[in-house]
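cron nightly-structures :: item 1 of 1
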Amino acid sequence: MKTAAIITTVIATFLFLYSSYMLTYDPVVRSTKDGMLLFNFAFWYAIPGILWIIYLITQKK
């Protein structure tokens, strides 16, 4: 589970950085809506966040 969480986090980081750049600087797909970057962050990090929570809950202490 930890490996899947790490891999999805790395992938989500690259996708978030790329889409944030596109939403901020690209003249074709630029978005000026309030909260768009926050939505972008939540969209890409939802699955890695869930996997990290599952991993931390199932850890034996």
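cron nightly-structures :: done
The chain has two helices and no strands.
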